[in-house]
Amino acid sequence: MVSNDKVLSILLEIGEKIEEEKLFLTELDNVIGDGDHGINMARGFDAVKAKQPMMEGKDIGTILKTVGMALVSTVGGASGPLYGTAFMQAGKVMAGKMEIGMEDFLAIMDAAIAGVQQRGKSTTGEKTMLDAMVPATEAMKKSFAESGDAKKALDDGLAAAKEGIEYTKTIIATKGRASYLGERSIGHQDPGATSFTVMLEVIDGAI
Ligand code: ADP
Ligand code: MG
Questions:
Q1: Using one digit for the tens of pLDDT, what is the confidence trace for 188-203?
Q2: What is the pTM for the complete model shown?
Q3: String of b and e for 59-76 (b: at least 16 CB within 10 Å)?
Q4: What is the pLDDT of residue 77?
Q5: Whole-angstrom Cα distance, residue 108 to residue 170?
Q6: N or C: which end of the chain has fewer CB within 10 A?
C-alpha cells in the first residue's frame, strides 16, 4: 500500500519529469500538431506544484481532484481537459482514502480511460494518449491477476505503454490536431501517448 504523502510526492516527481521532457514532448507535437504539448503539460504541473500546500495531508481523492482541476484550469489545448478529466475521475475512485493499492490503481486507470474517452469522444486506434493508456492498463490487469505482484504489473504496464507509443507511429491520427495531417501523421509517435508513458515511468520507478 502507498500512503497519501507518497502519492503526493510521486505527483510532484511527475511534474519534474514532465519539465525535463518538455522540449522532447513539444518537438513531437511540432511534427504532427502545433508544438505546444510539452509547454502545456509543464504549465499544468507548475500549477499542481503551486497547490502543494493545499494537498499536504489530504486524502488521495482530494489530491487527485486538485491535480485534475489545476490541469483543466491552466493547460490550453486538448490535453488539459483530457488529463484534467482523467485525474478528476481518478479522484472520485479514491475519495476519502489515505492509502492506495494496486487494485485501486487499476480502478483509477479504468476511470481515467473512461473519462478521456467520454470527454475526447475517442477510442483506441486513433493515435492518442489512449493508445498508451489502454494497453498499459490491460497489461497491468493481466500481470497482477497472474502474479499478485504490483511492481511486476507496473513494469509490464510500462512495457505495454512503450509498445503503444510504437503502435502510434504506424497509424493515422483521426482525433485532435494531428488528424489534419491525415496520412502524413504516419511515422510519427503521438505526444500524448508519450506524456502518459512518462507519467507511468515515474510511478513504476517510485514503487
Ligand atoms: P492540442 O492538440 O490542443 O495542441 P496538446 O498538444 O497539449 O493539445 O495535446 C495533444 C495530445 O492530446 C495528442 O497527442 C493526443 O494524445 C491527445 N488528444 C488530442 N485529442 C484527443 C482526443 N479526442 N482523445 C484523446 N486524446 C486526444
Ligand atoms: Mg498541441
A1: 999 999 999 999 999 9
A2: 0.98
A3: bbbbbbbbbbbbbbebbe
A4: 87
A5: 28
A6: N
Q: Are 41 and 18 in contact (CB under 8 A)?
A: yes
Q: Whose CA is nearest to atom 13 of ligand 1?
A: 192
Tell me the average pLDDT across 163-184: 95
Judged by its nearest atom, the ligand closest to the C-alpha of residue 116 is 1
Amino acid at 19: E
127 pLDDT exceeds 90?
yes
Give the max Cα distance, the chain. Answer: 49
Say yes or no: CB of residue 190 within 6 Å of ligand 1. Answer: yes
Kindly state if the Cβ of 115 falls inside 6 Å of ligand 1: no
* Alpha carbons 38 and 24: distance in angstroms, whole number: 7
Phi, psi of 2 (to 5 degrees): -115, 135
